[in-house]
Amino acid sequence: MDYINTTQTESKNCTDVSNVFTQHVLPILYTIICTCAFILNGLAAWIFFRVPSSSSLVVYLKNMVVADVLMLFTYPWRVVDYLGYGGLHSKLIVCRYTAVLFYLSMYTGITFMSLISLERYFKIVRSTSAMSSFLQRIPVARALALLTWGIMMFFMLPNSILSNQPMPKDFSCMAIKSDLGQRWHEISAHFTVGIFWVAFLLMVFCYTSITCHVYRSYKRVQQDSSKAGRRSNRSIFSLLAVFVFCFVPYHVCRVPYTLSQMPKADFSSHNCFFLFQVKEATLFLTALNVCLDPVIYFFMCRTFRELLLQKMPSLNCENKRPSTGIGLSISNL
């Protein structure tokens, strides 16, 4: 999309930079992460779907893998669009289908990450509560997974269905949406941004509580808590660091960018152009999540780590360590 059509020198320079960034830099970066993510998520899917759904944690992780794989399928289309292949028909496919699938998968994955943090919180910190036993039930986890997919599809799929207008000469994703489609796009954007911030605050609360609880547990049994504490903090803060790095920048600029796309928005062409560039750059950071999720699985899920090490005998010695009951809790954070 070209938001600048002016003869001003500053805007012309910005447009030139934009062409380099979106037509040359981003396609290379997306191709690299697409290749890496295909290998990593293929391995993650191969491991997870060879084990039964014996816990709610495994149910959520399997659904995260599905969301990541669906998101991964949209990357080649994004590369094609950036390179300018396929013309308007390629842009139409991206706007109507693959972009919707991208956001559907991303926010579904974010929701499952928050559900995992909530389940871990009740299992470790509130293990004696009725809610803990309720959330540990496999049927409950499957019901929450289906509910998550259902809600996300309800809010996201109309963005595809309502993109049914004829293609204009000056093509843009918003231009092919009906009036209802533009309104629904705004509603779904605000809803998903709200989902993100609720999930983020929930994860911060849950994993901060878990860290404090594990630290107090080691102090109480008079064990050396330094190594265990470092391992616990490493697994917890690796998740939060990935979450903040991949998702926070995009969601900071998501709302103003969406508002700038509205037909009656009072944004200058330069501001629209700037918001578009920031959106594309931060969107790439969210795409990196599919490469980093398998790393999180390794640090946070003992079952995943053990199965992976079993398939890699040269590293299996790393897994032969004495463990305690508290250690199991840490390994499954």
Give an overview in words:
- It is a single chain.
- The protein contains twelve helices and no strands.
- It has helices at residues 9-48, 56-72, 75-83, 87-124, 130-135, 138-161, 179-220, 225-260, 269-287, 289-300, 302-310, 325-331.
- It is globular, with a radius of gyration of 22 Å.
- Residues 1-17 and 317-331 have low confidence and may be disordered.
Quickly give the structural class: mainly alpha
Tertiary shape: globular
Radius of gyration over all CA atoms, rounded:
22 Å
Q: Kindly report the name of the CATH homologous superfamily.
A: Rhodopsin 7-helix transmembrane proteins
- Assembly state: single chain
Instruction: Write down the overall mean pLDDT.
Output: 78
Specify the number of helices. 12
Structure at a glance:
The chain crosses the membrane at residues 28-49, 56-77, 97-118, 139-157, 194-215, 236-252, 283-301. With 333 residues, this protein is mainly alpha-helical. It has a single domain (21-331), classed as Rhodopsin 7-helix transmembrane proteins (Rhopdopsin 7-helix transmembrane proteins, Up-down Bundle).
